[in-house]
Amino acid sequence: MDKRERERPRVVLGVSGGIAAYKACELLRRLTESGHDVRVVPTASALHFVGEATWSALSGHPADTEVWESVHEVPHVRIGQAADLVVVAPATADMLAKAAHGLADDLLTNTLLTARCPVIFAPAMHTEMWENPATQENVATLRRRGAIVVEPAVGRLTGVDTGKGRFPDPVEIFALCRRVLARGAEGAAVADLAGRHVVVSAGGTREPLDPVRYLGNRSSGKQGYALAATAAARGARVTLVAGNTELPDPVGVDVVPVGTARQLREAVLKAAADADAVVMAAAVADFRPAVYTTAKIKKVEGREPEPIVLVRNPDILAELSADRARPGQVVVGFAAETDDVLANGRAKLARKGCDLLVVNEVGEHKAFGSAENEAVILAADGTETPVPYGPKEALADTVWDLVGPRLAENHR
User: Which residues line the annotated binding site for CTP?
Assistant: First the structure.
């Protein structure tokens, strides 16, 4: 093996026996074409869906299933030891149970036991199997141990069934794999949020005025979605309360769509009941029309329109901060300012009572709709953390870097 090959990230793609096994071919193709050295380890049942020849041709390596193959290379030990990442996609209920209980009856389960790298499970199964208490306990066990178990998607399943349990989009799983590998290469703790439940709000609320008009804002939701995606990549169970965005759902994240500020409040408070941390990145309307007109407001020639009377919306961030749903819960707010940014941010931090406040300047071509952001994160203890201009994922990671130690301190 030459130096260039040794420097390629080594990924083990485990494939268990579900109908979604064919979708793992797309994940494999993306991993290999982006320069990763991928070894496919299918279970015997997975080969009923996609044959060994396909896995070998796409990966460039033999696809072994048994510990008795190539015994002189001790594959049941070496494959896991050498990996930079193991991703099991799809992960059936049976595979999750075996992994949670440490069973090792084939090459893939042996590989999982010997791996010392990050492990990702992408479940796919029928809704009833996913929701079964045994499966949920197995998932919770794996997450407590530091594995990243993404939430399955909601949609069409085998046959006519529809529900939660659909295999996540391979493109999104690939993005998650790259994010986990990048954190590992940076020497960062990869699954430092494993076993945690975090709630993130994103996007902008819309307050209806009549059937065709509303009061809204420019928020695209990109920063909140970056926070959700990076938390999932760090092992958290993530609930994303999303207001009026056109972004695809991040892989492995439970998304709750909302429209208005009051709907967002209801969804966030419900999700926060068992959350370790809540990050309010949504642009929530401060006001709403006092009256909703059931018919479209017409323009009348020669007459000025009636003034629109506004009333205050609930202050969700202040409510979360004042009445924590559980001891040690960390609450993070966002402050979008147009002038006196830091002064206004410090005043808002004191007023809202949250643990951290991400303060950034907004306006035309600033923050809203952009893939980049810069901010200063103010803490209740008086510390300030500047985040230079860069991808919104970098700001998101800095937020979680600050949340993590506070969670550890609060739960001692």
Answer: 286, 296, 314-317, 334, 348, 352
Nearest to 221 by CA among 255, 179, 182: 255
Query: Phi and psi for 17 in degrees, rounded to 5?
Result: -80, 75
Of 217, 244, 313, 373, which is the active-site residue?
217
Q: For residue 281, which of 229, 324, 236, 322 has the smallest C-alpha distance?
A: 229
13 located within any domain: yes
Global pTM reads: 0.83
d(CA 349, CA 46): 53
Q: Please indicate whether residue 132 is annotated as part of the active site.
A: no
pLDDT for res 189: 65
Per residue in 337-380, pLDDT tens? 878 888 999 999 999 999 999 998 875 555 566 788 889 999 99
Do 383 and 267 belong together in one domain?
yes
pLDDT tens for 214-268 read 999 888 999 999 999 999 889 899 999 999 998 988 887 889 999 999 999 999 9
Residue 144 domain flag = yes
Please determine, for residue 187, whether its predicted confidence score (pLDDT) is greater than 70: no
For residue 102, give its domain range. Answer: 8-185
* Domain end among 130, 165, 185: 185
Q: Is the link from the previous residue into 305 a cis peptide, with omega within 30 of 0?
A: no
Q: What is the pLDDT of residues 69-121, one digit of tens each?
A: 554 454 557 788 889 999 999 999 999 999 999 999 899 999 999 998 999 99
Binding-site residue ranges: 286, 296, 314-317, 334, 348, 352
Mean pLDDT of 314-332: 94
One domain for residues 287 and 157: no
Alpha carbon distance 284, 243 (integer Å): 9
Same domain, 241 and 125: no
CA distance linking residue 358 with residue 379, whole number of Å: 9
Q: Which residues of 144-158 are buried (b: 16+ CB within 10 A; e: fewer)?
A: eebbbbbbbbeeebe
